[in-house]
Amino acid sequence: MMRPVCFVLALAGALVLGREGPGASRAQRQVPPTSTPQPASASGALQRGITLMETRGDCATAISLFTTAANSREAIVAARALLLRGQCEERLGRASAARGSYERLLRDYPGSDIVIEARRRLDRIAASGSDGAFPKLSVRRLRLPSQVPTGSVSRDGRYIAYHDEAGAAWRRSLAGDVVEPLVFGATPAEAARATPLLLSPDVQRLAYMWAERGAPSAPHVVPGVTFELRVMTMPAGSVQTLVPAGDARSIRPVAWSADGRQVFALATDAAYRVRLIVVDVASRDVQRLGEFAFFEPHRVSPSPDGRWVAYDAPTAGAARDIFLLDLMTRTPLPVVRHPANDVLPEFLPDGRGVVFVSDRLGPLSLWLQRLKDGRPDGEAQIVRRDIGRFWPLGLTATGTFVHAVQATTADVHVARIDDAGRFEETAVPLTAQFAGMNIGPDWSPDGSSVVYLSSRGAMSVGPGSTLLVVRDRTTGAERPLMPDLVHFNGPRWSPDGTRILVRGQGANGRYGFFLVDARTGAVQPVLAVDNIERETDLGAFQWKPGREVVTYALNDTATRELDLRTGASTDLVPLRPGLRITAGRGLAWDAEAQRLAYSTFEKNGKSFINVLYVREADGTARELLRALPGDDLRLMGWMPDGLSLLALRSFESREGPDATVELWRIPVDGAPPVFTSLARSDLRNVTVHPSGTEIAYVYGSSTWETWMLEGIK
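^ thats the sequence. predicted structure below, dont judge the formating
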């Protein structure tokens, strides 16, 4: 019987098989017991080296074999030999030799499929052998509200501007002895219309994007809302409009120049093209610096001398790299290039480097790239490992990095329920993988699998940030899928269990519905929205059981059926202006595809109310339940027996710190609703197992803490 070997042995064995063939002699395939072999070929050396490394742990002998194989003319053999030689050197504690093997692999075989692994190992060697770029770092927490990511810190390190949970804005000294409100309108809540809050270098002014409601908006812009780029003298002084309302979807300030004379901003037009602009505060002159198609930088940081702007942007794949934009020539220059995600650059106070966030070690870590004349100066250095989900608020002139860290999150849970819809046991997390980063569960038609969304990128938004994960409920095995989409949500299994329907934005920038192959992740468009601004009008959606038909809400128009085989579209329920289907799971067919349940959000005088309906097989609709004004009522789906619906309810009279969202069972025969006993804060995404014995759902929300990392200088 063959002794067990690792996966890499099997892989290399398959590679060698095509060269030596299954009929190779016993002498050719036998591993000598002690002395260094003299193989007839480089591929044979690779095979024998793997056997020694994995089955006998004899790395010292294997290294000489990998050295022979590394001289092969076959790139795939040589590249793998270098990777394995580096791993052997690591096991023997020879970090310098391992580094040499990996660096040669990167230099000689940049197109190899194992470059990413070699790069990751190089980074780990660099991180493990260093105390970090700034050995004397210290960390302390600031006691601030969780909405701080909308704010900024002043360059001198004295003040921070932020929103609190109610939307009011404040300027606070980091010492805590000064706290003053920032006044933008008649009430403190008006400050929620000003985002983000960017303090000027002299701490006397604030740059922000202002959302002007009730004003006529330009075509292709959010109805009833216009956006302006403004500067206000603090705390409640004069307001200067730098860029007036126009046809921009948004115009978000991202940084002040070091001298306080200019504001950098990202302007998104009606077609979602993103441009980096700079505005002179005195003259209001606008200059265009660069364009980023659909993918805006997560962070823009001007250099202290005004020569460069650092930013992150996606490359050919989903991963992002760090670039410098030369403000004299308008030429972008890559300064951090890596297969991993490198994001959120911030110039050092002296301008001789940028710190940035990367997932190259797995968990997010903070790194430093030294710069000289706009070029990389040496390899990136680790600053701090495992920093968590991170958002920078600014790096002060004294080397204090103020940042927000995600403290609480949401996740998918599973619990068993009885025939009456009540819970029999305490819910447990669906998965231990990437805990707190998972939402949007949906059961497969046969109940054997659950698909969910998992946020696994360096950022929570953008290409590559979210995966579809298919989890086998029997074995616990998970299959991650990365659809080629800018973003997507709401996975729904197809009736045959082979595809997953999502709503999102394609790589070409168009919004709509897409089918994702449940095994390969391949994407097929289903419905593309020609008018790109109607994406928000695509509401709840669901498959029609047993059919190649998708039912979806085109809000303010109708609930429609789309036959995927014929392309025919049929209106089912008219939706007059002001009448919308609730988001998420607001549409649901019963198992026989005869009755369509839906919950609405409809105007009722000066307020809005939620109503739950059932459309019968003959097309007539009847009202099941009407919420009181201020209360919330949202459909989640049918119970498998077809006798009742599940809906989420919250009540205005119970609002407060301990307020929860409750899951109720609504009988379709008109009997009184029944509380299931499940109540959680931010309960959502409820889906029932086809057997009716289990339920999956999401609860929890993101909160942020503010921290200071001191000593980056």
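Helices lie at 7-20, 26-29, 42-56, 59-69, 75-91, 95-108, 115-128.
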